[in-house]
Design goal:
It is built from 16 helices and 12 strands. The structure holds D-xylulose (XUL) and cobalt (II) ion. The site of cobalt (II) ion has 4 residues, from loops.
């Protein structure tokens, strides 16, 4: 099954921070124990099939540049099987334990529904053989409900009931494939579940259809005995002008409104947070506070580009903020860090796949260690606790317990006089955080 297309690339070794070898890890040491468990178990890295194997690196102004000598560009099943071989060779050399895919990344869409389904089943069998041979696992699967022209008006939110049925067929099959591969989760990202104009959109009807669709997925999941997590992946826009899953708070509200909350976790992506006008840390905390942080699409945007550039996560401070939330919630269970990231168009050589993933993995290894330092140091958490300590007083406790009303508080406020406030010390705290990096 091996093509050995990456002949010039060794299995990437850990050489430590003094190494100058670009094809070595300086910080990611899979089995080194940090905060009580090996790095690989904390980080649960996954490679995204769509970017690693299928992204030609085009942009709105130019065609793809990626060199993929193993790919003949055809929609043949042989080509699809060969790509899977190359992908698992890549996973083995880079040392990534998990992967994620859309149905249409791994297998072609053919001229009939039956042929397309058969193609997917054949490729999934092949992926399964690779999983067994390598011990690597599926972090999550998903269905591509946004690329084919039939989804121009959306999939579960299409004005066409026939399109809704096509989307249902695709999700049914993708869920079964994910189950068959022992996937730890399944993602819904609503790329076209939204609108470009409210003049032609019945927003409430579309939201109700989306909820019904998700309920069907829950029912199907239960009927086949799939016990992986279901995730919603928030994103505010692009390609739609507005997506119904626009950010973590909107998703939580949607799930609550339609009685879906107990069935779904969130898969939070850094660049989507940026597009929503939030920090990644904000999105993660919103999800974690609701006990709904399931998994992460680890990437980053560009400060000067207002679109989803899906760059590899190389920002140590931001990655440390991510790992702080992950450690504080006790780590991933079904989720992990999926590199939903693509190389720049200028980085077109196959070896750049390695440089990109090494960079992202080393960033998160350092982030894990830095977050552990922050937590063990304890100054930030004790400052936070201290900042709210007045709420531990008798008065604070009575307010929190709902034992006191406006009139009684007015009397207390009049009696106590002007409150004495303490500084928020933001810059001091930022310094403490930076010390840990
Ligand atoms: C698109 C995006 C998707 C999802 C899976 O911005 O992030 O690739 O992660 O459909
Ligand atoms: Co994503």
């Amino acid at each position: 099954m091996s093509n050995d297309v990456f002949q010039d690339v060794p299995v990437i070794p850990f050489e430590g921070p003094d190494s100058r070898n670009p094809l070595a890890f300086k910080h990611y040491e899979a089995d080194a124990v940090v905060a009580g468990k090996p790095m690989r178990e904390h980080l649960r890295f996954a490679a995204a099939y769509w970017h690693t194997m299928r992204n030609p690196l085009g942009d709105p102004f130019g065609v793809g540049t990626a060199k993929m000598p193993w790919d003949d560009g055809s929609d043949s099943i042989d080509n699809a099987l060969r790509r899977a071989d190359v992908f698992f060779e890549f996973l083995g050399k880079i040392g990534i334990d998990y992967y994620c895919f859309h149905d249409r990344d791994v297998a072609p869409e053919l001229s009939t529904q039956g042929a397309t389904s058969d193609a997917l089943d054949r490729v999934v069998n092949h992926l399964q053989e690779h999983q067994v041979a390598s011990g690597r696992r599926l972090l999550w699967g998903t269905a591509c409900l946004f690329a084919h022209p039939r989804y121009v008006h959306g999939a579960a939110t299409s004005c066409s009931v026939d399109v809704f049925a096509c989307a249902a067929a695709q999700v049914r099959h993708a869920l079964d494939c994910t189950h068959r591969l022992g996937g730890a989760g399944y993602v819904f990202w609503g790329g076209r579940e939204g609108y470009t104009s409210l003049l032609n959109t019945d927003m409430q009807r579309e939201r109700e259809h989306l909820a019904r669709f998700l309920h069907m997925a829950v029912e199907h999941k239960q009927s086949i005995g799939f016990d992986g997590a279901l995730y919603i992946e928030p994103k505010p826009m692009e390609p739609a002008t507005h997506q119904y899953d626009s950010d973590a708070a909107a998703c939580l509200n949607f799930l609550r409104e339609f009685d879906l909350l107990e069935h779904f976790m969130l898969n939070i992506e850094t660049n989507h947070a940026t597009l929503a006008g939030h920090g990644m840390e904000h999105e993660l905390k919103v999800a974690a506070n609701a006990d709904r942080l399931g998994s992460i699409d680890a990437n980053m945007g560009h400060p000067q580009l207002g679109w989803d550039t899906d760059q590899f996560p190389m920002d140590l401070a931001d990655a440390t903020r991510v790992m702080l939330v992950v450690l504080e919630m006790g780590g991933f269970t079904t989720g992990g860090l999926n590199f939903d990231a693509k190389r720049r168009r200028e980085s077109f050589d196959p070896v750049d796949l390695f440089h990109a993933h090494i960079g992202g993995m080393d960033t998160f290894a350092r982030a894990l260690k830095s977050a552990d330092v922050v937590l063990r140091d304890g100054r930030l958490s004790s400052f936070l606790k201290q900042r709210y300590s007045e709420w531990d007083s008798d008065l604070g406790q009575r307010i929190e317990a709902g034992e006191i009303g406006l009139v009684e508080l007015e009397a207390i406020a009049n009696q106590r006089g002007e409150p004495v406030l303490r500084s928020g010390r933001q810059e001091m705290l930022e310094g403490i955080f930076n010390d840990a990096l």
